[in-house]
Amino acid sequence: MIDMFELLAIIIKVLVVFAGTLVGIMIMTLAERRVAGFIQYRLGPNRVGFGGMLQPIADGLKFFSKEDVIPGQANRPLFLLAPLAVMIPALMTFAVIPFGAPMEIAGRVVKLQVADINIGLLYILALTSIGVYGLVLAGWSAGSKYPQLGGLRSSAQLISYELAMGLAIIGVIMISGGLTLNQIIAYQQETGWNIWKQPIAAFIFLITIYAETNRLPFDLTEAEQELVGGYHTEYSAFKFAMFFLSEYANMITAAAFMVCLFFGGWDVPFIDEAALGGWGVLLSVASFLGKTAFFLFLYILVRWTLPRFRYDQLMRLGWKFLLPLALLNVFLTGLVLAVKG
Amino acid sequence: MYNDFAPILIFSVLSVAFIVIALFLQKILAPSNKGDLKSSIYECGEEIEIDARAQFNIRFYVVALIFLIFDVEVVLLFPWAVVFKDLGLVAFIEMLIFLGILTIGLVAVWRRGDLDWVKMEIPYALGRYANLDQAGSHDSAVEPGRD
Fold first, then answer.
1. Which residues of A touch B100 (CB under 8 A)?
2. Is the pLDDT of residue B2 over 80?
3. How far is it, in rounded angstroms, from Cα A193 to Cα A258?
4. Is the pLDDT reported for residue A1 higher than 70?
5. Site from B3, B8, B97 to mutate, A interface, most A CB atoms within 10 angstroms
6. Nearest CA of chain A to the CA of B132: how many Å?
7. Which residue in A180, A192, A198, B103 has the fewest CB atoms around it within 10 Å?
8. More confident of the two residues A245 and B122
9. Strand partners, A110
10. Average pLDDT for A316-329
11. Can you spell out the DSSP letters for B92-107?
């Protein structure tokens, strides 16, 4: 049974992670535009609040105060279901990601992770796959041509890159022998970060998370010049915001996932966090946030420096390069482990 | 074990509540002026001619089928990968056979042209483009009266 202490710990963790994700999304929307501004030699939004700090709140209020237009040809229940199917999984995925070393409060160990389930990796993969349904539904239910094409494109893109992503993760599971992120992080603490042992998998994973989150250079689903807004062309007001927010939520989760799989999670190299007590916990959380922020910055940097792929190039990269490479990685990992063991 | 999933339940309830409250707030705050023209779909201002849910390219369907096959493969690999270190060489050879068969499948699909996206490169997808060279030559081009 759950006692009061555990229940309290769970509720506090859920609230902190949920609020943290939302704040992270807000910071990302602002950071994206500010960094884009600096890359393009202009300032970006800097009027609302100090240096533009309150811009995300102003945007949020604007989303609430706009009229919600539903096209007459739309299939109304599915039209409403689609943004829900995208956003709820996007918000929930972060629940299994550990964001710091275990903390000791009043003689009891509290894991800095909302839910430590034994199939953590499968949970993340399953939830990210649900998002595909949302995109297809959004495209189809609007009854308009641009969303229809955008939805088709994005579903084909997401499923193509999901394969390479799953196979890249299998290499990591093989060497660390666990399906939870805690096991993988513990393994990395013992023997060094996975990036050194699975460089091919890390490379594939980095590319696929860009495709899975619909970011440039893989944002063909919403290629403005051809498809207007892609699957969310007909959405307005808060329903549009839900697609927008879930894209950033997915980016944050993907970056954190990348950090956990290949860059030691909350591990700080050359330091034993457990020996430092409270400071060790703080250090581990800072390390996790720092690494995640780095990959989020990389997302923005890539978006504003690389052009978009053509659709046939995208499919060729996914099926003819990444998939065989990922299969090869599984084979090589197995070979090395079998020969060594 | 079920206790492990309890936080996820709380988390999902919170996510749903967040969205429902936001949609409710919008219902209160946002104006609502409905109109026929406003609720028509976006088509760059042109008159809408055909239904969007008509036909789309069959290759999306083919790609989805190939994905299904390989996704099942990946799912089967997960439990194998977890216990791989304990099983050792035998498990490796067994999975090698499994992966080998599926790799042959990938090669077959590749050779067939199902992974190509440019129509001109796929023999069975050419359709009316098959005789493009003859049709495009100068003497037989665009005769009036012929479709």
1. none
2. no
3. 12
4. no
5. B8
6. 21
7. A192
8. A245
9. A103
10. 90
11. HHHHHHHHHHHHHHHH
With CB atoms and an 8 Å threshold, state whether A173 touches B53: no
Percent of chain A with pLDDT over 70: 98
- 3-state SS, A225-260, equals HHHCCHHHCCCCHHHHHHHHHHHHHHHHHHHHHHHH
- Bond preceding residue A217 cis, omega within 30 of 0: yes
Q: Any idea of the CA torsion for B115, B119, B124, B126, to the nearest 10 degrees?
A: 180
**B55 contacts chain A (CB < 8 A):** no
Q: Determine the distance from the C-alpha atom of residue A16 to the mean position of all C-alpha atoms in its chain, rounded to a whole number.
A: 18
Domain ranges of chain B: 2-136
How many CB atoms are closer than 10 A to CB B108? 10
CA distances from B144 to B89, B132, B133, B134 (A): 72, 18, 19, 17
What is the average pLDDT score of chain A? Answer: 85
Contact B35, A127 (CB under 8 A): no
Confidence of residue A53 (pLDDT cuts 50, 70, 90): confident
CA distance A185 to A121: 12
A window 247-306, beta carbon within 8 A of B = none
Nearest CA in chain B to A334: B92
What is the CATH T-level fold of the domain B2-136, as seen in this structure?
Methane Monooxygenase Hydroxylase; Chain G, domain 1 (1.20.58)
- Dihedrals phi, psi of A102, to nearest 5 degrees: -55, 140
Candidates B16, B26, B103; nearest CB to A238 = B26
- Output the average pLDDT for chain B: 78
- Cβ distance A330 to B99 less than 8 Å, yes or no, reads yes
Contact A96, A115 (CB under 8 A): yes
Tell which wins on pLDDT, A127 or B85.
A127
